[in-house]
Amino acid sequence: MGLLSAVALLPLAPVRGVIWISERLVDAADKELHDPAVIRAQLCALNRALDGGEIDEEQFDREEERLLDLLERRSPSAPPPQREGRRS
Q1: Of the candidates 48, 50, 67, the residue with the CA atom closest to the CA atom of residue 58
Q2: If you count Cβ atoms within 10 Å of the first and of the last residue's Cβ in the chain, which end, N or C, has fewer?
Q3: Is 71 exposed, middle or buried, given 0-12, 13-18 or 19+ CB atoms closer than 10 A?
Q4: Residue 75 DSSP class
Q5: Phi, psi of 5 (to 5 degrees)
Q6: pLDDT digits over 12-44, tens only?
Q7: How far apart are alpha carbons 60 and 8 in whole angstroms?
Q8: What is the dihedral of CA 35, 42, 88, 65, to 10 degrees?
Q9: Residue ranges per domain, the chain?
Q10: How far, in Å, CA of 16 to CA of 77, rounded?
């Protein structure tokens, strides 16, 4: 980049910095949202909520299905997750 173009683009540097940071934040959030370890922890918390009576069977089924779908989509080459039986 030449000196003239560097000087001409200098006012845009803060905008490019904000865009770069925004892209890194989106990448980090996406990775955390779809991390299999995080999804498994959410499944454990969901089971505890059902066992503790905080949610009913219908809510449990909906949320479990959503989490298992996320887990399955995240690792398509892996075998589908085993659905654990509910504790009574």
Answers
A1: 50
A2: C
A3: buried
A4: -
A5: -70, -35
A6: 778 888 899 999 999 998 888 778 888 999 999
A7: 57
A8: -60
A9: 21-74
A10: 37
Q: Up-side HSE of residue 6: CA atoms within 13 Å toward CB?
A: 3
Residue 4 phi, psi (nearest 5) = -65, -45
Q: CB burial class (10 A; 0-12, 13-18, 19+) of residue 81? A: middle
CB 54 within 8 A of CB 46: no
Question: Is residue 49 exposed (0-12), middle (13-18) or buried (19+ Cβ within 10 Å)?
Answer: middle
Say which amino acid occupies 51: D
